[in-house]
Specification:
CATH architecture of the largest domain: Alpha-Beta Horseshoe
Number of strands: 21
Distance between the termini: 56 Å
CATH class of the largest domain: Alpha Beta
Radius of gyration: 23 Å
CATH topology of the largest domain: pyruvate-formate lyase- activating enzyme
Bound molecules: S-adenosyl-L-homocysteine, iron/sulfur cluster, FE3-S4 cluster
Strand content: 15-25%
Structural class: alpha/beta
Strand order of the largest sheet: 2-1-3-4-5-6
Oligomer: single chain
Helix content: 25-40%
CATH superfamily of the largest domain: tm_1862 like domain
Amino acid sequence: MSHRVYVQTFGCQMNEYDTELVRSLLKERGFVFTPFPEQADVVLMNTCAIRENAHNRVYGHLAEWKAMKQSRDLVIGVLGCMAQNLKKELMESHPVIDVLAGPDSYRQLPDLLTKALERRERSMAVDLSEYETYEAILPERMPGVNAWIAIMRGCDNFCSFCVVPYTRGRERSRPAQGILEEAHALAAQGYKQITLLGQNVNSYQSENVTFARLLSDVADIPGIERVRFTSPHPKDFPPALIEVVAHHPNVCRQIHLPLQAGSDRILDLMGRSYTRAGYEALAAEIRRQGDIALSTDIIAGFCTETHEEFLETYELVREIEFQSAYIFKYSERKNTIAYRKFPDDVSEAVKSERVTRLVELQRTISAGKNRQLIGTEVDVLVEGNAKKSSHQWMGHTESNVTVVWDKDVTPLALGDRITIKVEDASASTLFGTPVPSLASVV
Ligand code: SAH
Ligand code: SF4
Ligand code: F3S
Protein backbone atom coordinates (compact mmCIF):
# COMPACT_ATOMS: atom_id res chain seq x y z
CA MET A 1 0.00 0.00 0.00
CA SER A 2 1.16 3.55 -0.67
CA HIS A 3 2.54 5.44 2.25
CA ARG A 4 0.57 8.49 3.29
CA VAL A 5 2.41 11.74 3.86
CA TYR A 6 1.38 14.87 5.71
CA VAL A 7 3.45 18.00 5.15
CA GLN A 8 3.39 21.34 6.89
CA THR A 9 5.25 24.40 5.65
CA PHE A 10 6.74 27.33 7.55
CA GLY A 11 8.68 30.36 6.37
CA CYS A 12 8.73 32.21 3.09
CA GLN A 13 7.24 31.63 -0.35
CA MET A 14 10.42 29.87 -1.40
CA ASN A 15 9.62 27.23 1.18
CA GLU A 16 6.03 26.98 -0.08
CA TYR A 17 7.46 26.37 -3.52
CA ASP A 18 9.94 23.79 -2.20
CA THR A 19 7.08 21.91 -0.54
CA GLU A 20 5.45 21.68 -3.97
CA LEU A 21 8.73 20.25 -5.32
CA VAL A 22 8.81 17.73 -2.48
CA ARG A 23 5.22 16.72 -3.18
CA SER A 24 6.11 16.13 -6.79
CA LEU A 25 9.26 14.13 -5.99
CA LEU A 26 7.40 11.92 -3.51
CA LYS A 27 4.32 11.39 -5.69
CA GLU A 28 6.57 10.18 -8.49
CA ARG A 29 7.74 7.46 -6.14
CA GLY A 30 4.27 6.33 -5.13
CA PHE A 31 3.71 8.30 -1.93
CA VAL A 32 0.26 9.82 -1.48
CA PHE A 33 -0.64 12.94 0.51
CA THR A 34 -3.16 13.47 3.26
CA PRO A 35 -4.25 16.73 4.86
CA PHE A 36 -4.62 14.93 8.22
CA PRO A 37 -1.47 14.22 10.28
CA GLU A 38 -3.29 11.60 12.35
CA GLN A 39 -3.84 9.53 9.17
CA ALA A 40 -0.26 9.81 7.93
CA ASP A 41 2.60 7.27 7.98
CA VAL A 42 5.07 10.07 7.40
CA VAL A 43 4.82 13.59 8.82
CA LEU A 44 7.09 16.26 7.36
CA MET A 45 7.81 19.80 8.38
CA ASN A 46 9.44 22.19 5.92
CA THR A 47 11.10 24.60 8.32
CA CYS A 48 12.41 28.16 8.46
CA ALA A 49 15.42 29.47 10.38
CA ILE A 50 15.21 33.19 9.77
CA ARG A 51 14.43 34.18 13.39
CA GLU A 52 14.52 32.31 16.70
CA ASN A 53 10.71 32.18 16.89
CA ALA A 54 10.72 30.17 13.63
CA HIS A 55 12.88 27.57 15.41
CA ASN A 56 10.67 27.62 18.48
CA ARG A 57 7.56 26.89 16.47
CA VAL A 58 9.22 23.76 15.08
CA TYR A 59 10.22 22.56 18.56
CA GLY A 60 6.58 22.95 19.59
CA HIS A 61 5.36 20.77 16.72
CA LEU A 62 8.05 18.18 17.28
CA ALA A 63 6.79 17.77 20.84
CA GLU A 64 3.26 17.14 19.52
CA TRP A 65 4.47 14.66 16.94
CA LYS A 66 6.58 12.88 19.54
CA ALA A 67 3.39 12.22 21.51
CA MET A 68 1.72 10.92 18.33
CA LYS A 69 4.67 8.59 17.64
CA GLN A 70 4.38 7.00 21.07
CA SER A 71 1.09 5.35 20.16
CA ARG A 72 1.84 4.18 16.61
CA ASP A 73 4.36 3.73 13.80
CA LEU A 74 5.27 7.11 12.41
CA VAL A 75 8.19 8.50 10.43
CA ILE A 76 9.07 12.10 11.24
CA GLY A 77 11.01 14.21 8.76
CA VAL A 78 12.36 17.72 9.14
CA LEU A 79 13.16 19.57 5.91
CA GLY A 80 14.20 23.06 4.94
CA CYS A 81 16.29 25.84 6.37
CA MET A 82 16.29 24.86 10.04
CA ALA A 83 17.30 21.31 9.14
CA GLN A 84 20.16 22.69 7.06
CA ASN A 85 21.12 25.19 9.73
CA LEU A 86 21.30 22.84 12.71
CA LYS A 87 22.07 19.54 10.94
CA LYS A 88 23.43 16.93 13.35
CA GLU A 89 22.73 19.10 16.39
CA LEU A 90 18.98 18.90 15.68
CA MET A 91 19.12 15.18 14.93
CA GLU A 92 20.98 14.53 18.19
CA SER A 93 18.86 16.73 20.41
CA HIS A 94 15.64 15.25 18.97
CA PRO A 95 15.88 11.45 18.61
CA VAL A 96 12.24 11.53 17.50
CA ILE A 97 13.39 12.79 14.07
CA ASP A 98 13.95 10.00 11.54
CA VAL A 99 14.93 11.99 8.47
CA LEU A 100 16.57 15.38 8.07
CA ALA A 101 16.92 16.97 4.62
CA GLY A 102 18.15 20.42 3.61
CA PRO A 103 16.87 22.51 0.67
CA ASP A 104 19.33 21.06 -1.87
CA SER A 105 18.76 17.41 -0.90
CA TYR A 106 15.14 16.78 -1.78
CA ARG A 107 15.94 14.40 -4.62
CA GLN A 108 17.21 11.98 -1.95
CA LEU A 109 14.09 12.31 0.18
CA PRO A 110 12.07 9.38 -1.28
CA ASP A 111 14.98 7.00 -0.57
CA LEU A 112 15.57 8.34 2.92
CA LEU A 113 11.90 8.01 3.82
CA THR A 114 11.74 4.50 2.38
CA LYS A 115 14.72 3.45 4.51
CA ALA A 116 13.04 4.91 7.57
CA LEU A 117 9.72 3.22 6.80
CA GLU A 118 11.13 -0.18 5.94
CA ARG A 119 14.19 -0.47 8.12
CA ARG A 120 13.70 2.16 10.84
CA GLU A 121 16.96 3.74 9.71
CA ARG A 122 17.63 7.33 10.69
CA SER A 123 19.36 9.47 8.06
CA MET A 124 20.38 12.97 7.15
CA ALA A 125 21.08 14.73 3.81
CA VAL A 126 22.38 18.25 4.21
CA ASP A 127 24.92 18.83 1.44
CA LEU A 128 24.49 22.16 -0.29
CA SER A 129 24.93 22.20 -4.04
CA GLU A 130 26.29 24.84 -6.38
CA TYR A 131 24.10 23.61 -9.21
CA GLU A 132 20.81 22.15 -7.97
CA THR A 133 17.87 24.16 -9.36
CA TYR A 134 15.41 21.25 -9.56
CA GLU A 135 15.21 21.96 -13.27
CA ALA A 136 12.75 19.63 -15.02
CA ILE A 137 10.84 18.85 -11.83
CA LEU A 138 7.35 20.17 -12.17
CA PRO A 139 6.16 21.20 -8.70
CA GLU A 140 2.91 19.62 -7.57
CA ARG A 141 0.88 22.80 -7.12
CA MET A 142 -2.36 23.31 -5.31
CA PRO A 143 -5.13 24.50 -7.60
CA GLY A 144 -5.54 28.24 -7.39
CA VAL A 145 -4.94 31.56 -9.02
CA ASN A 146 -1.27 32.17 -8.22
CA ALA A 147 1.67 29.92 -9.03
CA TRP A 148 5.17 30.49 -7.69
CA ILE A 149 8.26 29.83 -9.74
CA ALA A 150 11.69 29.87 -8.09
CA ILE A 151 13.96 31.38 -10.72
CA MET A 152 17.06 31.14 -8.59
CA ARG A 153 18.17 29.50 -5.38
CA GLY A 154 20.61 30.45 -2.63
CA CYS A 155 22.13 33.82 -1.84
CA ASP A 156 25.65 35.25 -2.02
CA ASN A 157 24.97 38.54 -0.27
CA PHE A 158 25.83 37.54 3.28
CA CYS A 159 23.98 40.41 4.94
CA SER A 160 25.52 40.21 8.41
CA PHE A 161 22.24 39.39 10.21
CA CYS A 162 21.02 36.73 7.82
CA VAL A 163 21.14 32.95 7.95
CA VAL A 164 19.88 32.33 4.40
CA PRO A 165 23.31 32.08 2.69
CA TYR A 166 24.11 29.28 5.16
CA THR A 167 20.80 27.45 4.83
CA ARG A 168 20.37 27.76 1.08
CA GLY A 169 23.92 27.92 -0.13
CA ARG A 170 25.41 29.63 -3.16
CA GLU A 171 23.36 31.65 -5.57
CA ARG A 172 22.42 29.97 -8.84
CA SER A 173 19.94 30.90 -11.55
CA ARG A 174 17.66 28.49 -13.26
CA PRO A 175 17.88 28.58 -17.09
CA ALA A 176 15.34 30.97 -18.61
CA GLN A 177 14.12 28.46 -21.16
CA GLY A 178 12.78 26.06 -18.50
CA ILE A 179 11.15 28.90 -16.55
CA LEU A 180 9.32 30.13 -19.64
CA GLU A 181 8.17 26.63 -20.55
CA GLU A 182 6.85 26.15 -17.04
CA ALA A 183 5.05 29.51 -17.16
CA HIS A 184 3.43 28.53 -20.49
CA ALA A 185 2.25 25.25 -18.96
CA LEU A 186 0.86 27.12 -15.94
CA ALA A 187 -1.08 29.49 -18.18
CA ALA A 188 -2.53 26.48 -20.02
CA GLN A 189 -3.58 25.00 -16.67
CA GLY A 190 -5.47 28.20 -15.86
CA TYR A 191 -3.14 29.98 -13.42
CA LYS A 192 -3.63 33.73 -13.86
CA GLN A 193 -0.83 35.09 -11.73
CA ILE A 194 2.80 34.09 -11.53
CA THR A 195 5.15 35.18 -8.77
CA LEU A 196 8.84 34.85 -9.57
CA LEU A 197 10.93 34.05 -6.52
CA GLY A 198 14.55 34.55 -5.55
CA GLN A 199 16.50 35.94 -2.60
CA ASN A 200 17.86 38.67 -4.83
CA VAL A 201 16.16 38.60 -8.20
CA ASN A 202 18.29 41.48 -9.56
CA SER A 203 21.26 39.18 -9.79
CA TYR A 204 19.36 36.65 -11.90
CA GLN A 205 21.44 35.80 -14.97
CA SER A 206 21.00 32.96 -17.39
CA GLU A 207 23.28 33.23 -20.40
CA ASN A 208 22.30 36.64 -21.75
CA VAL A 209 18.87 36.83 -20.07
CA THR A 210 18.62 39.40 -17.26
CA PHE A 211 15.83 39.52 -14.70
CA ALA A 212 14.12 42.47 -16.40
CA ARG A 213 14.03 40.51 -19.66
CA LEU A 214 12.77 37.33 -17.97
CA LEU A 215 10.04 39.26 -16.18
CA SER A 216 8.80 40.85 -19.35
CA ASP A 217 8.96 37.53 -21.26
CA VAL A 218 6.87 35.79 -18.57
CA ALA A 219 4.39 38.67 -18.61
CA ASP A 220 4.03 38.32 -22.41
CA ILE A 221 2.71 34.77 -22.12
CA PRO A 222 -0.93 34.67 -23.23
CA GLY A 223 -3.28 33.89 -20.34
CA ILE A 224 -0.94 35.23 -17.64
CA GLU A 225 -2.68 38.34 -16.37
CA ARG A 226 -0.46 39.37 -13.51
CA VAL A 227 3.18 38.83 -12.74
CA ARG A 228 4.78 39.68 -9.41
CA PHE A 229 8.26 39.04 -8.01
CA THR A 230 10.07 39.00 -4.72
CA SER A 231 12.58 40.23 -3.68
CA PRO A 232 14.94 42.60 -5.42
CA HIS A 233 17.86 44.07 -3.46
CA PRO A 234 18.18 47.88 -3.38
CA LYS A 235 21.94 47.71 -3.99
CA ASP A 236 21.90 46.71 -7.63
CA PHE A 237 18.47 47.68 -8.89
CA PRO A 238 18.68 47.95 -12.68
CA PRO A 239 16.88 50.85 -14.41
CA ALA A 240 15.56 48.37 -17.00
CA LEU A 241 13.65 46.60 -14.22
CA ILE A 242 11.90 49.81 -13.12
CA GLU A 243 10.92 50.34 -16.73
CA VAL A 244 9.34 46.88 -17.07
CA VAL A 245 7.42 47.30 -13.80
CA ALA A 246 6.24 50.78 -14.75
CA HIS A 247 5.20 49.99 -18.32
CA HIS A 248 4.43 46.32 -18.91
CA PRO A 249 0.65 46.04 -18.57
CA ASN A 250 0.80 42.56 -16.98
CA VAL A 251 3.54 43.27 -14.46
CA CYS A 252 2.01 44.51 -11.21
CA ARG A 253 3.16 48.01 -10.37
CA GLN A 254 4.40 46.98 -6.99
CA ILE A 255 7.90 46.42 -5.65
CA HIS A 256 8.93 44.86 -2.37
CA LEU A 257 12.17 46.69 -1.59
CA PRO A 258 13.65 45.61 1.76
CA LEU A 259 15.09 48.65 3.55
CA GLN A 260 16.18 47.01 6.86
CA ALA A 261 17.36 50.29 8.45
CA GLY A 262 17.54 54.03 7.87
CA SER A 263 20.91 54.75 9.46
CA ASP A 264 24.05 54.59 7.34
CA ARG A 265 26.14 53.17 10.18
CA ILE A 266 23.64 50.34 10.74
CA LEU A 267 23.26 49.66 7.01
CA ASP A 268 27.03 49.38 6.83
CA LEU A 269 27.17 46.97 9.78
CA MET A 270 24.42 44.96 8.13
CA GLY A 271 26.50 44.72 4.97
CA ARG A 272 23.66 45.97 2.81
CA SER A 273 25.93 47.92 0.38
CA TYR A 274 23.64 50.94 0.02
CA THR A 275 23.17 54.13 1.97
CA ARG A 276 20.08 55.90 3.20
CA ALA A 277 20.49 58.47 0.41
CA GLY A 278 20.94 55.70 -2.16
CA TYR A 279 17.69 54.05 -1.04
CA GLU A 280 15.83 57.38 -1.03
CA ALA A 281 17.06 58.12 -4.55
CA LEU A 282 15.98 54.69 -5.78
CA ALA A 283 12.53 55.03 -4.22
CA ALA A 284 12.16 58.48 -5.80
CA GLU A 285 13.24 57.18 -9.21
CA ILE A 286 10.76 54.26 -8.99
CA ARG A 287 7.96 56.69 -8.19
CA ARG A 288 9.04 59.11 -10.92
CA GLN A 289 8.65 56.36 -13.51
CA GLY A 290 5.17 55.27 -12.51
CA ASP A 291 2.51 54.84 -9.88
CA ILE A 292 4.37 51.93 -8.28
CA ALA A 293 3.51 50.76 -4.75
CA LEU A 294 6.46 50.11 -2.46
CA SER A 295 6.55 47.71 0.45
CA THR A 296 9.49 46.84 2.67
CA ASP A 297 11.12 44.83 5.45
CA ILE A 298 12.70 46.46 8.50
CA ILE A 299 14.76 45.07 11.36
CA ALA A 300 14.54 46.95 14.66
CA GLY A 301 17.17 46.70 17.37
CA PHE A 302 20.07 45.42 15.30
CA CYS A 303 23.42 45.16 17.14
CA THR A 304 24.52 48.50 18.67
CA GLU A 305 21.56 50.44 17.18
CA THR A 306 21.16 53.64 19.22
CA HIS A 307 17.93 55.49 19.86
CA GLU A 308 18.99 58.19 17.39
CA GLU A 309 19.72 55.58 14.73
CA PHE A 310 16.33 53.99 15.33
CA LEU A 311 14.77 57.43 14.86
CA GLU A 312 16.53 57.70 11.50
CA THR A 313 14.70 54.53 10.42
CA TYR A 314 11.45 55.88 11.86
CA GLU A 315 11.82 59.17 9.97
CA LEU A 316 12.65 57.41 6.72
CA VAL A 317 9.56 55.20 7.02
CA ARG A 318 7.51 58.35 7.60
CA GLU A 319 9.12 60.04 4.63
CA ILE A 320 8.87 57.23 2.09
CA GLU A 321 5.33 56.19 3.00
CA PHE A 322 5.40 52.52 2.09
CA GLN A 323 2.14 50.81 1.19
CA SER A 324 3.05 48.17 3.77
CA ALA A 325 6.01 47.00 5.83
CA TYR A 326 7.06 43.84 7.65
CA ILE A 327 8.81 44.88 10.82
CA PHE A 328 10.95 42.42 12.76
CA LYS A 329 12.85 42.39 16.02
CA TYR A 330 16.48 41.56 15.36
CA SER A 331 17.05 37.91 16.19
CA GLU A 332 20.64 36.76 16.48
CA ARG A 333 21.48 33.80 14.24
CA LYS A 334 24.40 31.54 15.07
CA ASN A 335 27.40 31.64 12.70
CA THR A 336 26.29 34.78 10.87
CA ILE A 337 28.73 37.69 10.54
CA ALA A 338 26.79 39.72 13.11
CA TYR A 339 26.92 36.81 15.57
CA ARG A 340 30.67 36.59 15.20
CA LYS A 341 31.49 40.30 15.14
CA PHE A 342 28.88 42.45 16.88
CA PRO A 343 27.18 42.34 20.29
CA ASP A 344 23.43 41.69 20.34
CA ASP A 345 23.18 44.46 22.90
CA VAL A 346 19.77 46.06 22.38
CA SER A 347 17.50 44.73 25.13
CA GLU A 348 14.37 42.74 24.30
CA ALA A 349 12.25 45.50 25.83
CA VAL A 350 13.83 48.17 23.64
CA LYS A 351 13.56 45.99 20.52
CA SER A 352 9.87 45.43 21.25
CA GLU A 353 9.25 49.11 21.83
CA ARG A 354 10.94 50.03 18.53
CA VAL A 355 8.93 47.42 16.65
CA THR A 356 5.70 48.67 18.19
CA ARG A 357 6.46 52.27 17.27
CA LEU A 358 7.25 51.35 13.68
CA VAL A 359 4.20 49.11 13.37
CA GLU A 360 1.97 51.91 14.64
CA LEU A 361 3.50 54.43 12.28
CA GLN A 362 3.13 52.10 9.31
CA ARG A 363 -0.45 51.27 10.25
CA THR A 364 -1.33 54.98 10.15
CA ILE A 365 0.38 55.36 6.77
CA SER A 366 -1.29 52.25 5.28
CA ALA A 367 -4.70 53.27 6.61
CA GLY A 368 -4.29 56.77 5.16
CA LYS A 369 -3.29 55.42 1.75
CA ASN A 370 -6.16 52.94 1.75
CA ARG A 371 -8.70 55.57 2.81
CA GLN A 372 -7.66 57.71 -0.16
CA LEU A 373 -9.01 54.91 -2.34
CA ILE A 374 -12.55 55.19 -0.96
CA GLY A 375 -14.82 56.19 -3.84
CA THR A 376 -12.39 54.97 -6.52
CA GLU A 377 -12.59 51.81 -8.60
CA VAL A 378 -9.85 49.18 -8.33
CA ASP A 379 -8.94 46.25 -10.55
CA VAL A 380 -9.03 42.98 -8.59
CA LEU A 381 -8.24 39.34 -9.31
CA VAL A 382 -10.68 36.98 -7.55
CA GLU A 383 -8.43 34.75 -5.43
CA GLY A 384 -10.62 32.90 -2.92
CA ASN A 385 -12.86 33.16 0.10
CA ALA A 386 -12.24 35.99 2.54
CA LYS A 387 -10.40 34.83 5.67
CA LYS A 388 -13.21 35.85 7.96
CA SER A 389 -16.24 34.68 5.96
CA SER A 390 -17.03 32.24 3.18
CA HIS A 391 -19.84 34.62 2.20
CA GLN A 392 -17.23 37.06 0.96
CA TRP A 393 -14.66 36.97 -1.82
CA MET A 394 -11.06 38.08 -1.43
CA GLY A 395 -8.59 39.36 -3.98
CA HIS A 396 -5.78 41.88 -4.34
CA THR A 397 -5.30 45.13 -6.16
CA GLU A 398 -2.37 45.45 -8.50
CA SER A 399 -0.57 47.22 -5.64
CA ASN A 400 -1.14 44.08 -3.52
CA VAL A 401 -3.74 45.48 -1.11
CA THR A 402 -6.31 42.91 0.04
CA VAL A 403 -9.88 43.59 -1.14
CA VAL A 404 -12.97 41.94 0.33
CA TRP A 405 -16.54 42.07 -0.96
CA ASP A 406 -19.83 40.21 -0.45
CA LYS A 407 -20.63 37.28 -2.68
CA ASP A 408 -23.98 38.21 -4.13
CA VAL A 409 -25.96 37.50 -7.24
CA THR A 410 -23.04 38.36 -9.52
CA PRO A 411 -21.58 34.95 -10.38
CA LEU A 412 -17.81 34.98 -10.11
CA ALA A 413 -15.14 32.34 -10.40
CA LEU A 414 -11.59 32.13 -9.08
CA GLY A 415 -9.24 33.93 -11.43
CA ASP A 416 -11.85 36.39 -12.74
CA ARG A 417 -10.74 40.01 -13.08
CA ILE A 418 -13.29 42.48 -11.80
CA THR A 419 -13.66 46.12 -10.88
CA ILE A 420 -14.53 46.91 -7.28
CA LYS A 421 -15.81 50.26 -6.10
CA VAL A 422 -14.10 50.91 -2.78
CA GLU A 423 -16.49 51.92 0.00
CA ASP A 424 -14.48 51.45 3.16
CA ALA A 425 -10.88 50.83 4.15
CA SER A 426 -8.76 49.71 7.08
CA ALA A 427 -4.96 49.63 7.35
CA SER A 428 -4.89 46.20 5.74
CA THR A 429 -8.07 45.79 3.70
CA LEU A 430 -10.35 47.56 1.24
CA PHE A 431 -14.07 46.80 1.30
CA GLY A 432 -16.38 47.44 -1.65
CA THR A 433 -18.84 46.19 -4.24
CA PRO A 434 -18.35 44.92 -7.77
CA VAL A 435 -19.03 47.39 -10.55
CA PRO A 436 -21.21 45.65 -13.15
CA SER A 437 -19.12 45.02 -16.24
CA LEU A 438 -20.34 46.12 -19.65
CA ALA A 439 -20.82 42.46 -20.56
CA SER A 440 -23.18 41.78 -17.67
CA VAL A 441 -25.20 44.98 -18.27
CA VAL A 442 -25.82 44.21 -21.95
N1 SAH B 1 16.30 37.95 0.44
C1 SAH B 1 15.39 38.85 0.97
C2 SAH B 1 15.10 38.67 2.42
C3 SAH B 1 14.71 37.33 2.89
S1 SAH B 1 14.51 37.22 4.62
C4 SAH B 1 15.97 40.22 0.78
O1 SAH B 1 17.13 40.44 1.04
O2 SAH B 1 15.23 41.03 0.36
C5 SAH B 1 13.12 38.27 4.87
C6 SAH B 1 13.36 39.34 5.87
O3 SAH B 1 13.59 38.79 7.14
C7 SAH B 1 14.55 40.24 5.63
O4 SAH B 1 14.30 41.22 4.69
C8 SAH B 1 14.81 40.82 7.00
O5 SAH B 1 14.07 42.00 7.21
C9 SAH B 1 14.26 39.74 7.94
N2 SAH B 1 15.36 39.07 8.65
C10 SAH B 1 16.37 38.34 8.12
N3 SAH B 1 17.21 37.93 9.08
C11 SAH B 1 16.73 38.42 10.26
C12 SAH B 1 17.16 38.35 11.62
N4 SAH B 1 18.28 37.71 11.96
N5 SAH B 1 16.41 38.96 12.56
C13 SAH B 1 15.28 39.61 12.22
N6 SAH B 1 14.83 39.71 10.96
C14 SAH B 1 15.54 39.13 9.99
FE1 SF4 C 1 19.59 37.35 3.55
FE2 SF4 C 1 20.68 39.52 2.51
FE3 SF4 C 1 20.51 37.27 1.08
FE4 SF4 C 1 18.31 38.65 1.63
S1 SF4 C 1 20.02 39.37 0.39
S2 SF4 C 1 18.58 36.44 1.79
S3 SF4 C 1 18.72 39.43 3.66
S4 SF4 C 1 21.74 37.58 2.92
FE1 F3S D 1 12.70 31.33 3.71
FE2 F3S D 1 13.00 31.04 6.29
FE3 F3S D 1 14.58 29.76 4.66
S1 F3S D 1 12.52 32.91 5.25
S2 F3S D 1 14.72 31.04 2.86
S3 F3S D 1 12.36 29.51 4.86
S4 F3S D 1 15.17 30.72 6.56
